[in-house]
């Protein structure tokens, strides 16, 4: 039995190392299945919880066009959550159980969504920086070894670049406005910059899942590599519209061909993950309320379909 | 753990991206009946004109071949390369056949 398992495991490792794709019914090591369920469901939860900070601004968007755009963006996030739950279910888990884990607080979601969206400029900063960081993380996932996840990410990435551009366009417009509007944009950047860099996860030396996930082609680049790319991509975008990066240690390093930047406050990162962020409690309460308020609708839909089957 | 009463069955979704092409599998979703599955599929999988027609199929109704049978099913074609036209070498003078 163990010999068979070892043999299957060797075949699997060689297959994945050759950059081939695994599909739902193929044999896979338990740890591969588990790590994918964890990652894909956390990713799905992040899309769903991610609707909350932006959803709050739909009714307060400054124009009808901005409102329609934000509404479409938030609807996309719901769609992304659903593509991902669908991919997770191919690994043999029930969606209802995944949702229960989110609602009970057992499952994690991206800690960035535990920060509040205080002003309209935050909607710009979220699209530009948070979706920007998400794209940086997600583009390599389009080549992930697990087929359904890779296909879901391809759809997500196509839609995500609209999100980033609409965010940047909000910032651009504010930076062409009054002094107060410029200050609002700068304030949003100041508050969202560091949490956005934390989205790439702990530094490579501290990251617990990285090396095995690299071997399995679930992860293609290290947290620090992706973070560096994010910094190098964003700095000129900020400069271009007259925003100042909130990092006194930020400077171009000719030798490495990238920016040096300041130390991330990892105490804050772990604190928010542990549940002590500004909005952790509010987000879970909002999700639970939405789920509970919708229960009668789900039950009624089932009752209606059963009644129609009888007739 | 989850309340079965509120769990809608799983449907696989197939979308025809434009007239002239076949329906292609795009993912799955939950819905209590076919009508709702089509409505949900429209919202989840065709927000950007990705489709002109949708099929939804209860996931439990799909029968699939097993990866362990793939050798028996698909390997016999390996040694029948003569089924491809490139197996036959033509004289240079014969350009199109």
How are the SSEs placed, and which strands pair?
The complex is a heterodimer of chains A (311) and B (97).
Chain A: H1 2-17, H2 30-49, H3 51-55, H4 64-89, H5 95-104, H6 120-138, H7 147-175, H8 179-198, H9 210-215, H10 223-240, E1 251-253, E2 258-260, H11 266-276, H12 280-293, H13 295-310
Antiparallel strand pairs in A: 1-2
Helix pairs in contact in A: 2-4, 4-7, 6-7, 6-8, 6-10
Chain B: E1 10-16, E2 23-30, H1 34-45, E3 53-58, H2 70-74
Antiparallel strand pairs in B: 1-2, 1-3
Key structural traits:
heterodimer, A: 311 residues, B: alpha+beta, 3-stranded antiparallel sheet, 2 helices, 18% helix, elongated
Global geometry of chain B: elongated
State the end-to-end distance of chain B: 64 Å
What is the CA-based Rg of chain B, rounded? 21 Å
Structural class by secondary-structure content of chain B? alpha+beta
Class from secondary-structure proportions of chain A: mainly alpha
Q: Let me know the average pLDDT of chain A.
A: 95
Determine the most extensive contact between two protein chains.
A-B, 31 and 22 residues
Poorly predicted residue ranges of chain A: none
Strand content of chain A: under 5%
Principal-axes geometry of chain A comes out as: globular
H/E element order of chain B:
EEHEH
How would you classify the quaternary structure?
heterodimer
Total helices of chain B: the number is 2
- Global Rg of chain A: 21 Å
Total number of beta strands of chain B: 3
Strand content of chain B: 15-25%
User: Which blocks of ≥5 consecutive residues of chain B have pLDDT under 50?
Assistant: none
The spatial strand order of the largest sheet of chain B comes to 2-1-3
Straight-line distance between termini of chain A: 52 Å
């Amino acid at each position: 039995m163990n010999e068979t398992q070892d043999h299957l495991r060797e075949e699997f490792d060689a297959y994945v190392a050759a950059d081939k794709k695994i599909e739902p019914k193929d044999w896979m090591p338990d740890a591969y299945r588990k790590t994918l369920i964890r990652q894909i469901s956390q990713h799905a939860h992040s899309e769903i919880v991610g609707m909350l900070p932006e959803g709050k601004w739909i009714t307060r968007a400054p124009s009808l066009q901005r409102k329609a755009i934000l509404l479409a963006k938030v609807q996309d996030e719901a769609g992304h959550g659903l593509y991902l739950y669908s991919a997770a279910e191919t690994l043999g888990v029930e969606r209802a159980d995944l949702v229960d884990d989110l609602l009970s607080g057992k499952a994690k979601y991206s800690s960035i969504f535990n920060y509040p969206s205080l002003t309209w400029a935050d909607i710009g900063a979220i699209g530009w920086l948070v979706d920007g960081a998400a794209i940086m993380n997600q583009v390599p996932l389009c080549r992930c070894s697990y087929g359904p996840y890779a296909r879901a990410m391809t759809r997500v990435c196509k839609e995500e670049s609209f999100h980033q551009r609409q965010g940047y366009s909000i910032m651009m417009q504010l930076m062409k406005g009054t002094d107060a509007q410029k200050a609002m944009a700068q304030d949003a950047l100041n508050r969202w910059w560091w949490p956005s860099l934390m989205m790439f996860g702990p530094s490579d030396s501290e990251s617990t899942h990285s090396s095995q996930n690299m071997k399995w082609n679930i992860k293609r680049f290290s947290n620090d590599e992706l973070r560096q790319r994010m910094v190098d991509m964003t700095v000129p975008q900020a400069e271009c519209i007259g925003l100042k990066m909130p990092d006194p240690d930020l400077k171009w390093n000719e030798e490495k061909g990238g920016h040096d930047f300041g130390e991330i406050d990892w105490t804050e990162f772990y604190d928010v993950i542990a549940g002590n962020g500004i909005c952790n409690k509010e987000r879970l309460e909002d999700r639970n309320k939405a789920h509970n308020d919708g229960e009668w609708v789900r039950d009624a839909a089932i009752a209606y379909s059963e009644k129609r089957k009888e007739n | 753990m989850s309340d079965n009463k509120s769990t809608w069955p799983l449907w696989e979704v197939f979308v025809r991206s434009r007239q002239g092409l076949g329906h292609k599998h795009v993912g799955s979703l939950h819905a209590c009946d076919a009508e709702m599955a089509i409505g949900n599929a429209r919202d989840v999988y065709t927000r950007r004109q990705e489709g002109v027609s949708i099929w939804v199929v209860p996931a439990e109704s799909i029968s699939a071949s097993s990866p362990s049978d793939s050798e028996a099913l698909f390997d016999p074609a390996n040694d029948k390369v003569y089924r491809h036209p490139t197996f036959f070498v033509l004289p240079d003078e014969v350009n199109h056949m």
